[in-house]
Write a structure and sequence with these properties.
Length: about 80
């Protein structure tokens, strides 16, 4: 009896994996399934790019916020 791991994911499942990937490392089967889905789907890579844009914007906002905290106020 062989262990079969389904590698097909729906767009909804792929989106959930993209969100989960922001917080934790995906398991190997999930990472492979996500990669395969992203290669076959037209919409999900756009969602992945949107997630990247949001992450970069939040990183930039945190940097700006930290920089503002270190600047002494002018009188």
């Amino acid at each position: 009896m062989s262990l079969q791991i389904p590698l097909r994911r729906t767009c909804k499942e792929a989106a959930a994996l993209l969100v989960a990937r922001e917080d934790r490392a995906l398991s190997l089967p999930d990472a492979v399934a996500l990669k395969l889905h992203l290669m076959a789907c037209r919409s999900c890579p756009e969602f992945e790019n949107q997630m990247l844009t949001m992450r970069l914007a939040m990183d930039r906002w945190r940097q700006d916020l930290n920089a503002a905290d270190t600047v002494e106020p002018r009188l």
